[in-house]
Design brief:
heterodimer; A: alpha/beta; 5 helices; B: alpha+beta; two-stranded parallel ribbon; 2 helices; 2 strands; Putative reductase (chain B)
């Protein structure tokens, strides 16, 4: 079987990057200088003619604090998994596990990142689930090969015809 | 950086996206982007500022309207 060229490039990058990421504080600049990135597809899907049914996805590391494990926010290469939670989760049950932004505003009012009430006031129908991952994820092979297809399958199963993506 | 991967995959899957972020560079080249003047983690504005949340949401939704 032909090795995935992107996975090979990433595996070659990792041994030199890990010691830099393990420093206190981590030297992200040096570690990421040679981080390999796959070519972007650059596709643009057609816009729906019917009313929006909008999926909401965020890289804020949001998770359902009562039922789900937090992301491994302090892992050297981040966390490549995702979480799916009910879109109508009460604000007090949404927590964030991503160490690269201040959570104060989002915990005080999740509308700052996932504007569920605001979108509904605007007349938009939301899909049944909020989809989340953590933006600090350096294991791109796992994220691309496993997590993204699962997130897309979830959006499709929820009947999304468009998506709001909120990177944090 | 991962948001671009997710946007690319959604668009390829036929699901059009709009991305609401606070930093322009990581989102360059994505098909529909709104950059807001707020801080990371407050993409739609300060807590409780419903008018600003709505203004940004409306700007994002306009990009999903067929021309």
């Amino acid at each position: 079987m032909q090795p995935n060229p992107y996975r090979s490039a990433w595996a070659a990058w990792l041994p030199d990057a890990l010691p830099l990421l393990a420093q206190n504080p981590p030297d992200y600049s040096a570690a990421l200088r040679t981080f390999p990135k796959p070519e972007r597809a650059g596709a643009a899907a057609a816009l729906p003619n019917e009313p929006l049914r909008l999926a909401v996805l965020t890289s804020s590391g949001a998770y359902w604090s009562r039922r789900q494990a937090a992301f491994a926010a302090s892992s050297l290469i981040g966390d490549s998994t995702h979480r799916v939670m009910p879109i109508d989760l009460p604000p007090e049950e949404i927590a964030f596990a991503q160490e690269h932004f201040d959570h104060t505003a989002a915990l005080a009012d999740p509308e700052t990142i996932v504007p569920r009430a605001t979108l509904r006031e605007a007349g938009v129908q939301l899909t049944d689930h909020l989809i989340s991952w953590t933006g600090y994820c350096l294991d791109w092979p796992a994220f691309i090969e496993q997590t993204i297809p699962q997130m897309i399958a979830q959006a499709r199963a929820d009947g999304a015809n468009a998506a709001l993506v909120v990177p944090v | 950086m991962t948001a671009g991967l997710v946007v690319d995959a959604l668009e390829l899957a036929g699901i059009p996206t709009v991305c609401v972020g606070v930093m322009r560079k990581p989102l360059e080249g994505l098909p529909r982007v709104v950059i807001t003047p707020h801080t990371r983690g407050s993409n739609f504005g300060p807590p409780g500022d419903r008018a600003e949340h709505r203004r940004i949401a409306d700007e994002a939704l306009r990009l999903l309207e067929p021309h």
